[in-house]
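Budget justification aside, the reviewers requested a transparent look at the raw inputs and outputs of the sequence design task funded under Objective 1. We therefore reproduce one unedited record. The lines immediately below are the structure tokens for a 251-residue chain.
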């Protein structure tokens, strides 16, 4: 497997016929996450799968209460636990909440030590499928602007106590469920991602599936012009979340 960091849409050498699981938006360490126990749950829940794609915002550096240094250590420990318990390959795709440049260094070090782990800054092209976090939807629908958009999420200091209390109140009142559904309506989101395919792959006409996160709105195989779109939702309080199983197919 090719080790990160990469921005390219090169097809991964993972062989067709593999069974995989796609998850995203766990927001671990944010205080609203339901995903911290995922490493101990995945293998038992999907015993036939030997490929795991982590689709971004797995960790939440912006809202972590531990600061960047503490969150880096905790994220590395979480990934170590996952790799101990998941017997197959693991691919990590960065999202806007876990795009810390120092974390990228941690990911690169893990990739050097463990052959079955790799990571990508933006997206992964695997057979007839494309995997991405999906924050390009909020970056002007332009992959070249994605890094600039993500710069706003690089942790510079801890969120204030007042900000945390306000956000906790928003979550408790479930207001955080409303905005994603209004902002990222299913059909329009799939249309935007479909138009982005030429930016992601050399032969977009061969793509049949798109797996993405970011929106916190589950999508279960919405079909548009021969392409099916999937989103697992988000493993945060009061939001639906369901890991998505997939097969690795020929392009």
């Amino acid at each position: 497997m090719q080790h990160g960091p990469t921005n390219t849409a090169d097809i991964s050498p993972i062989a067709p016929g593999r069974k995989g699981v796609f998850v995203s938006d766990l927001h671990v360490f944010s205080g609203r996450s339901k995903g911290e126990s995922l490493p101990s749950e995945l293998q038992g829940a999907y015993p036939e799968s030997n490929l795991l794609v982590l689709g971004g915002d797995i960790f939440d550096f912006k809202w972590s209460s531990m600061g960047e240094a503490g969150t880096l250590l905790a994220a590395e420990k979480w990934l170590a636990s996952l790799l101990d318990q998941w017997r197959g390959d693991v691919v990590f795709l960065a999202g806007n909440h876990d795009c810390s440049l120092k974390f990228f260094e941690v990911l690169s070090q893990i990739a050097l030590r463990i052959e079955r782990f790799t990571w990508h800054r933006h997206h992964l092209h695997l057979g007839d499928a494309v995997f991405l976090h999906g924050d390009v939807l909020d970056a002007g629908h332009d992959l070249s602007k994605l890094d600039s958009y993500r710069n706003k999420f690089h942790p510079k200091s801890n969120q204030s106590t007042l900000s945390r209390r306000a956000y906790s109140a928003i979550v408790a009142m479930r207001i955080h469920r409303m905005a994603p559904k209004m902002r990222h309506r299913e059909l329009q989101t799939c249309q935007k991602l479909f138009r982005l395919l030429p930016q992601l792959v050399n032969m977009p006409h061969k793509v049949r599936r798109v797996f993405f996160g970011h929106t916190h709105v589950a999508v279960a195989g919405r079909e548009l012009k021969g392409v099916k779109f999937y989103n697992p939702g988000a493993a945060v309080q009061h939001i639906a979340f369901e890991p998505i199983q997939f097969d690795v197919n020929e392009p």
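The chain has one domain: 19-247. Helices lie at 38-45, 67-85, 101-113, 146-150, 161-172, 178-183, 186-200. Computational costs for records of this kind are itemized in the attached budget.
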